[in-house]
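tool_call predict_complex ligand=D-ribose
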Amino acid sequence: MIALGSDHGGFELKEAIKKHLEEKGIRYKDFGTYSPESIDYAVIAAKTAKGIVSGECEKGILCCGTGIGISIAANKVKGIRAACCSDYFSAKYTRLHNDANVLCMGGRVVGVGLALELVDVFLETEFEGGRHQRRIDQIAAIENGEL
Ligand code: RB5
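tool_result ok
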């Protein structure tokens, strides 16, 4: 199950991603927003991120105007590794090297065509592990106040 969320700036892109996931038979849970009305991205980031760290959803996709605000907010939730991407290489390598569990994109930055390519590579790429696991463990140590 993929967790989806956006503010108003990413609403249209989130709706396009929903359609894309439906066409691919990928299950998702939409944590809002549900209309183009203005809404604060931190609220949506928190709800969506909690849907992931609870184990209900495996990964998430968050959209706001730039992808930045919603990624900063999501990264405040322990266990979230959210990456704001607008190119294919970053969306792929944030899975390979960072084991990112949330892809963030800007609805005012990337076109729908590119965004859907980023979604596909993000969801299809596995974490490489090895030396990268040590670095993920260090990120967790920061969260726990150990580093
Ligand atoms: C909302 O206008 C906009 O600030 C928000 O979507 C996002 O871009 C923030 O980082």
